[in-house]
Amino acid sequence: MIKTKxxxxxxxxxxxxxxxxxxxLLLGKEKKAMxxxxxxxxxxxxxxxxxxxxxxxxxxxxxxxxGKTKAQIEDLPITDLIELxxxxxxEEGVLDFLSKQPEG
Length: 104
Hints:
Helix content: over 70%
Number of strands: 0
Shape: globular
Order of helices and strands: HHHHHHH
Structural class: mainly alpha
């Protein structure tokens, strides 16, 4: 379950990845034209493509959310990593939080 303490980490991760434009497009007008599955897949691809910019923040967030160690997160298979992102993005309130990120 995503809690407030995780949102700080998520915000730092999104900021460092510079995902503002992608989020604005995906969670704005384009959201209406996409199914939830397409939206989720597109968001995950945007995150995966830029997560090298926020490696520490991403690992910190995933470790905090899952209770795993940072080493365990770093050793996850890619399919497990993608499933973690899907789970986080499907949590109630996360997309609303992301759609209200201030422009940087």
